[in-house]
Amino acid sequence: MDPTILFCNPQKTILPKLEFFRSIGLSSTDIPRVICASYCQALLSRSLENQLIPCYNFLKSVLFLNQNVIKMLKSRPRVLLFNVEKVLAPNIATLREAGVPQSVISFMMYRSPSTLYQESLKFKEGVNKAIEMVFNPQRSTFAHAVQVLCDMHESTFEQKKEVYGRWGLSNDEILLAFRSHPLCMNLSEEKIMETMDFLVNKMGWQATVVARCPVVLFFNMERRIIPRCTVVKILLTKELVKKDLRLTTQRGSVPGEVCEQISG
């Protein structure tokens, strides 16, 4: 607990903030959890009129529903410490200028608020990079791409590309995987290598096929990938499926392929 709270006036400083939290829908059980979360004891020492209320109103203007704001505060209470005018507002304005719809902005605010708290120039560079890499601002993948490009150092991004490149993937194929599922760059080197080794060396699928469906890299090896692939092997042995069974099958008019055998 922040010891400076002991110097606060209980009636004039602390009580009004507790009443505010209760008025917006936080329960008597939620309030202590929000306040005692890591680094969030500072909430009680921040100005109610100049920080907490304006930040709450701003969050509600982005997330629309009060219940969405409450969910965010329960999981990420530090968001109430964000500087709305100097950081959040300019970054959201950047998204709107790029043609990002409100639905995607709300999605980004809810899923990765720390990305929106980036320094404005750095955030704008991330948005511009996502546009240059042909991400569609109308889709949630754009938000994920901005998150990765803003939160990850360029050198780390290149290191992740090198890890994928060890499997014979070209730069274009790696970027295709990134455009399909941007968060694949957030996976650890160990996770990437372990899953690729199993799918390529043990199951015999081509690395390019996996790159077209990078979501499979997120699945748990023991609980999902290995059991389902074991079933596939049994079906192949009994000739109950075609020998050229692939990791993915085509769906709709999209030229790429989507997961089915493992993710289905």
From TrEMBL:
GO biological process: DNA-templated transcription termination
Pfam families (UniProt xref): mTERF
Keywords tagged on the record: Transcription, Transcription regulation, Transcription termination, Transit peptide
SMART domains reported for this sequence: Mterf (SM00733)
Transmembrane segments annotated in the record for this chain: none
Keyword Transcription: yes
Matches recorded under Gene3D superfamilies: Transcription termination factor 3, mitochondrial
UniProt KW Transit peptide keyword: yes
One annotated GO molecular function: nucleic acid binding
PANTHER family associated with the record: CGI-12 PROTEIN-RELATED (PTHR13068), MITOCHONDRIAL TRANSCRIPTION TERMINATION FACTOR FAMILY PROTEIN (PTHR13068:SF133)
Family the entry assigns: Belongs to the mTERF family.
The name this protein goes by in its record: Uncharacterized protein
Organism name: Camellia sinensis (Tea plant)
